[in-house]
Structure formats: structure tokens, C-alpha cells
Design brief:
This protein has two domains: 216 residues, HUPs (Rossmann fold), CATH 3.40.50.620; 73 residues, Tyrosyl-Transfer RNA Synthetase. Helices cover 55% and strands 8% of the residues. The chain starts with a strand and ends with a helix. The chain binds adenosine-5'-diphosphate and tryptophan. The site of tryptophan has 13 residues, from β1, α7 and β4.
Length: 331
């Protein structure tokens, strides 16, 4: 049986880009045959988040967002990384077998240095913890975005160093994982309110559960020009259509596009299109928004759910941790 595993950092409120680009494909992937492991990488977020109340809130938000949007905790083991301390033990063992050069070559680390961030040791060590996350569960396949591919390759290297040193013929200590780079065509690239890629770091995002006045205000920011509704336009050049395309069915989308292309009497203006987008977003997430409220209203149940996930995850990680302790002579 194939074991799929992936993690998400609780580093902010999740936006429509995260939904179409990551959350929805993640949830759909759990329908494939195999075992599915999903966790909230809160230890990883500690490399950047410095506000304990905020970190607690973000962990809860990410958990509630995935569950409200349909992650089935029966189908996928879902837990909080820091509830499985075995990964930090495995990370230490891996780190002792890995050269500093390997970590110095990490793009994510080099990018942060280049951006002038004064790195803490955690940021440098981040790929080792990520390798432990993957190896602790004997994962076969790690579905990731492009920016994480190198981290999975580093995991393969670290598993290799450890196995070469301590594994026996035909009996590796760690299972070698493969990354699965999701087919770009399946992953929508969602534009933000300024037309650039939607991203936390650009401040151009729309929170998945935004609604009412705040949602209207956000959508109104989508850039338009002063051309009147009657003037024929190419809908494919308008950001509002990139967003509408994510929500409307083909027939309705085609209809709006045809009207905009034709112009004249009866062609919708930008305000009209934006209103349709607001309604479509409200409707698309209505059920999930209600589930989110329910989940937030019962924090004890959410804690129980994450604890159940952690228990399953931990039982698995313990076996691998014990294997590694024994292999290197610590038991
Ligand atoms: P951000 O750019 O907001 O910091 P992250 O880098 O934390 O987002 O991305 C989390 C996940 O969401 C990744 O899998 C990433 O590919 C996906 N994602 C983020 N922004 C977009 C977007 N605008 N369109 C599609 N997918 C996105
Ligand atoms: N580093 C990943 C990210 O920022 C999150 C992550 C942590 C992860 N550990 C992992 C992803 C293990 C996949 C497997 O998105």
C-alpha cells in the first residue's frame, strides 16, 4: 500500500490561492487508494512566528479550514506536528549524519539570506526536520509544490547517508520517499487583487472565508479601467475573469465572456462582474463556512480530533524512531 504524506505550515490565514492551489488538490488526493497522512507543521512555523497567541490561533485556523473544506479525518490521519516528539529525535539522528554543505545548498535558506533575513539555527535546520517528518512515517509519496521539491531530494540524501552507515543489506533503516510534483495544469495559479500571483507576502489575498461587506470591499480592489460597459473588451485580459473562472460553470462563464466581448447595450460593467464574483464566492464556501463555525464553537472536539490523529501518527513514528535508535547504537 502506498503511503502519501504532506504537511502545511500554519503561517497565516489561508487564501483562495492556497485553496485552489493546495487545499483542494490535497483533499482530492486523499481519495486515491493508499494511506494518507496530513499534518500541521507548527514546529516549522516557530522559525518565523514570534507571537504565541497568534501561533495557537493559526494552528487552529489551518485545522478548521482543512476539516471544514472536507478533509475526512477517517480517511487521512490528521495531526499537529509537535504532538509527535519522535520526529525531533529522528531529526537529531539525521542531522548527525548530514554535512553542513547539504543544508547550505537549500534554495529556501539561500533565498532568505539573500532577502536580508538574519537566520536562526531553526531556519538552517528546517530541511532536517522536514526530512524527519517524511521518514518518520515510512512515506512513499510526498505531494508538494515546486518550492518544496529540493527539500524532498535532501530527504532522499539524508535517508541515504543514514542507510549507508547503519542499514544492513536489503534492510534500510529509512524508506526512500519520492516527491510528486502535481501536474501544473491541475493546479490553478490564482491571481491576487492586484493581478500578481495571490500571496500572503504581497498582501493581495482574499481569505477563503471572507464574506459580506469585507468581501465586497476586497473584490472592489480588483484593478479595472475607465472603459464603459458598452465598449467591447477581451475578457481574457481581465483579472476579474480569471477569478470568475474558478467559480462559475463553463456555460455561465462563456455567457458572461460573450457579452463582454460583444459590448453594446446589455453588456455587464465591471461592477456587475464583481458583484457576480462576490455572490459566487459566498455561495461556493457557504457550507464550509457553516462547518467552520461549528468546529470553532467546539474547541474540545477539535482537540480530541487532533489528539486522535496524533495518537495514530505517533504509533507509527515510534516504530521508525526505535528502528533508528537501534541501528545507530543508541539502544
Ligand atoms: P503564500 O504565497 O501565500 O505565502 P504559500 O507559499 O504558503 O503561500 O503556499 C501554500 C500552498 O498554497 C502552496 O502549495 C502553494 O503552491 C499554494 N499557493 C499559494 N499561492 C497560490 C496561488 N496564488 N495560486 C495557486 N496556488 C497557490
Ligand atoms: N516545508 C513545507 C512548506 O513550507 C511544510 C512541511 C513541513 C512539509 N514538513 C513537511 C511538507 C513534510 C511535506 C512533507 O510548505
Amino acid at each position: 500500500m502506498t503511503t502519501f504524506l504532506s504537511g502545511i505550515q500554519p503561517s497565516g490565514y489561508l487564501h483562495l490561492g492556497n485553496y485552489f492551489g493546495a487545499i483542494r488538490p490535497h483533499i482530492r488526493a486523499t481519495e486515491q487508494p493508499g494511506e494518507h497522512f496530513y499534518f500541521i507543521a507548527d514546529f516549522h512555523s516557530l522559525t518565523t512566528v514570534r507571537d504565541p497567541e497568534l501561533l495557537r490561533t493559526l494552528v487552529r485556523e489551518v485545522a478548521v479550514t482543512y476539516l471544514a473544506l472536507g478533509l475526512d479525518p477517517e480517511r487521512a490521519t490528521f495531526w499537529r506536528q509537535s504532538d509527535v516528539p519522535e520526529v525531533t529525535e529522528i531529526a537529531w539522528m539525521l542531522g548527525c549524519m548530514s554535512g553542513i554543505g547539504l543544508l547550505e545548498r537549500a534554495h529556501s535558506y539561500k533565498d532568505k539570506l539573500a532577502a536580508g533575513i538574519k537566520p536562526n539555527v531553526g531556519l538552517f535546520y528546517y530541511p532536517v526536520l522536514m526530512a524527519a517528518d517524511i521518514l518518520a512515517y515510512d512515506a512513499d509519496v510526498v505531494p508538494v509544490g515546486k518550492d518544496q521539491v529540493q527539500h524532498v531530494e535532501m530527504t532522499q540524501d539524508m535517508a541515504g547517508y543514514f542507510n549507508n552507515t547503519f542499514g544492513k543489506e536489503g534492510e534500510p533503516v529509512f524508506r526512500r520517499p519520492e516527491f510528486r510534483l502535481e501536474d501544473e495544469a491541475h493546479f490553478a495559479k490564482v491571481p491576487g487583487l492586484d493581478g500578481r500571483k495571490m500571496s500572503k507576502s504581497y498582501g493581495n489575498g482574499i481569505w477563503i472565508f471572507e464574506s459580506g461587506k469585507k468581501l465586497k470591499k476586497a473584490i472592489n480592489k480588483i484593478p479595472t479601467d475607465s472603459r464603459p460597459p458598452e465598449e467591447p473588451k477581451d475578457p481574457d485580459e481581465l483579472v476579474v475573469f480569471d477569478l470568475l473562472a474558478l467559480f462559475l460553470d463553463d456555460d455561465e462563464l462563456g455567457d458572461w465572456k460573450a457579452k463582454v466581448r460583444a459590448g453594446g447595450e446589455g453588456a455587464p460593467g465591471y461592477g456587475h462582474l464583481k458583484m457576480r464574483l462576490v455572490a459566487a464566492i459566498e455561495e461556493h464556501f457557504a457550507a464550509a463556512r457553516a462547518r467552520r463555525e461549528q468546529l470553532l464553537a467546539d474547541p474540545a472536539e477539535l482537540d480530541r480530533l487532533l489528539a486522535r490523529g496524533a495518537e495514530k501518527a505517533r504509533a507509527r513514528a515510534r516504530v521508525v524512531r526505535d528502528r533508528a535508535l537501534k541501528a545507530c547504537g543508541l539502544r
